[in-house]
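Review form for a predicted model. The reviewer records the input and the model, then writes brief findings.
Reviewer: anonymous (R2)
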Amino acid sequence: MRYRARVEYDGTDFSGFQVQPGARTVQGEFEAALAKISGGSQIRVVAAGRTDAGVHAIGQVIAFTDPRGRPAKELARALDALLPVDVAIREVRRVPAGFHPRYAARYREYRYTVWNGPRSPLRERFALGVRDPLDTAAMERAGSVLVGRHDFSAFGVAHRQPVRTVHSVRVRRAGSLVTIDVAADAFLRQMVRRVVAALLEVGHGRTNEEAVAEALASRRPAFNGATAPAKGLCLRRVALGPMRGRAALVTRSQERTENDDRQDLYGP
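Model under review:
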């Protein structure tokens, strides 16, 4: 049986989601737990997006196949008991055999958190500490120029297909807490963190929305490739919809190699 689940993780001590030789990863922890409850069988876990080292998630979606077809609640209990303290699994459900969350996702939403106040060790584990005041209204205006379908080469790692559709960029303040929410159909690697770095420049008054628009149009690394630290970024939501096109035909035997997958949809 095929299953999907929502997962949460503190990315601080992970080298990202995707399995890497000799590194601790979220995918590696899930596959190790699945092997333990399946008599050593290797079961591949796939996700809606690959978060990079240090990036967190509260709404990541994964999928896997259980050869034994156990009830979803039983699987959830068994996995939860084996996963480490910085990973949790929720909402395990049966899905059609060809389900793949990368193709089923209609859009993804990330939040970047900034603590714009006095130094705070606890808050700044999951947020970027910024001492100088930020002009969040100017940041909101600058973010609006990124909404729409564009070539985002200026704000991401080089990719063979850099066109993405950004649905919204919202900048909000609640006291000293500043949040930057970005929703899009997909992201280039490091795209949100580079967008955040640009908006912070705007917030500090060092640049403006016109410069952000010019950087986007140039397709060259924006603001010398400045990238905000990973610790402030969290995958909040993956909105699922009907599988499209070849997604409906994907089976485990048809899945691409890891090499090919690296060129696909990334969490930033």
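Findings: Residues 46 and 63 are 5 Å apart (CA to CA).
Further findings: The first helix runs from residue 26 to 37.
Recommendation: see findings above.
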